[in-house]
């Protein structure tokens, strides 16, 4: 990856990261309005789904052909299920733990799962060994989450 590409992708990654606690706070308020976490998560997912279909149509200037998606291996559909679970968990956890602790715990889980996925090349991801520095980084995140939650 070139330095220019990195400099372009970095703000996008930071903005996406900043969107998560914002989304959690907004969905928590939606939960209060609609009366429950499952409905709030469902509405959030529905709005996101509609937005992505509109973006697909606008960007490709055509209605997408869903034929190839129907032939995808079963496990590739789990991404949507995992995403729904993630949004639901955020709606349940944020009002109880706070945004910082919820994000910290999610981040810890993401780093641990990412290291495992990379190390074993799961889901057709390129193999990247779980080196001591990477494991130390994961441990430091766990320590950081503890400090954020404790203090």
Structure notes:
The protein is mostly helical. It has one domain (3-150). It is 80% helix and 0% strand. It has six helices and no strands. The radius of gyration is 18 Å and the shape is globular.
Structural topology:
Blueprint: H1 3-34, H2 37-60, H3 67-70, H4 78-97, H5 99-120, H6 132-150
Helix pairs in contact: 1-2, 1-4, 2-4, 4-5, 5-6
Globally, the shape reads globular
The largest β sheet comes out as: none
Q: Could you give the count of β-strands? A: 0
Helical fraction equals: over 70%
Indicate how many domains the architecture comprises. Answer: 1
Tally of alpha and pi helices = 6
Order of helices and strands: HHHHHH
Quick overview of this protein structure:
This protein is mostly helical and 151 residues long.
What would the keywords be for this entry?
mainly alpha, about 0% strand
